[in-house]
Amino acid sequence: MTHFYAITGLFAIALLPCSTYGQLWTLAHSNLSLSEEKSVKCSSLMGLSRTQRPLCRRYNDHMTFVSSGAQTGLEECKHQMRTNRWNCTVPSTASASKSLDVGSREVAFSYAITAAGVVHAIARACKNGELSEHCACSRRARPRGLSPTWKWGGCGDDTDYAYGFSYEFIDANEKGNRSRNRRETARRNMNLHNNEAGRLAVFRMTRPTCKCHGVSGSCSLKSCWMQVPDFREVGRRLHAQYAAAMEVKSTGSGKLRPRFTSSKDPAPTDLVYLDSSPDYCIPNPNMGVLGTSGRDCEMYSPGMDGCGIMCCGRGYSSRDIVIETTCRCKFQWCCSVKCDTCRKQVRKHICH
Questions:
Q1: What is the pLDDT of residues 139-153, one digit of tens each?
Q2: What's the pTM value of the predicted model, to 2 decimals?
Q3: Cβ of 99: how many Cβ atoms within 10 Å?
Q4: Domains in the chain: how many in total?
Q5: Are residues 60 and 187 in the same domain?
Q6: Residue 86 and residue 170 share a domain
Q7: pLDDT number for residue 8
Q8: Pair 65, 135: CB distance under 8 Å
Q9: The Cα angle at residue 209 between residues 204 and 214, in degrees rounded to 5
Q10: CA triple 56-60-64, angle to 5 deg
Q11: Are residues 8 and 114 in the same domain?
Q12: Which domain holds residue 50?
């Protein structure tokens, strides 16, 4: 099924031996770098679909930022899911196609967070002059409500270009899949919807940022520009959307509608999924499930990270370990902070 390239087409190069787990996770592990003398070899780059390789050649200088953006998305996925039974990792032996065969809310989140990472990285690269043949500073109009005494026009992150590139490149795989199979059509539309939700998260969270200028910090002049948020904020937003994700079904024409008639049609920013999540308690390499054995848990937490939920009723073991932390930090003139290293004993609880 060609739609398996699509996200995680930015998400999978070293996670799995086969590129079909998805281009985004693949490129996240590719450690791409460009120099003036050398470009990315699109023909040998794992994780790209047939429809994306021509775009890779056309936008060759973008690929290192696609890779780094996907990596940012992958790391943020792990952070946001660190207290869940599924923590955004798969075993290296997982079957590529089956890993994404279930159109679950976790897969929906994976598509969205990596698409967001690419928009974020490309927007920053434009601002920094690293893609100067294609984009530069943001050309967004002065937003309403900004004080008339503040100067508009500092060099902002170009989310308009980043959004457009991400739309063209990431969605190319899904749009190149012309299968008339109803199931594949539904998955294609699910993936496209979640890609868009990820892009919009960055685009709509971009805000004016201002800086004061003047003698001794007098702020006699303030200049402002558009800036993408810290990616941790994007991750939190998408994680909240993951928790509220909408289960959908496919109509005869392949369009997605709420599975339950009392629900409204999904908004562009909603995450959508077709299938219930698999059982993440027990290892299932063929489904890309590691299980929760060996995971840390919190003895008294009522949440997903609590030992009762995380360990799936199997129980847990406790042991004392010694960890090192920084302590007694002092400011040194000028200009550094010096800290001591302290050891302390903590009790860890580990799922059976």
A1: 888 888 888 878 887
A2: 0.85
A3: 26
A4: 2
A5: yes
A6: yes
A7: 42
A8: no
A9: 170
A10: 100
A11: yes
A12: 2-135+159-203+232-291
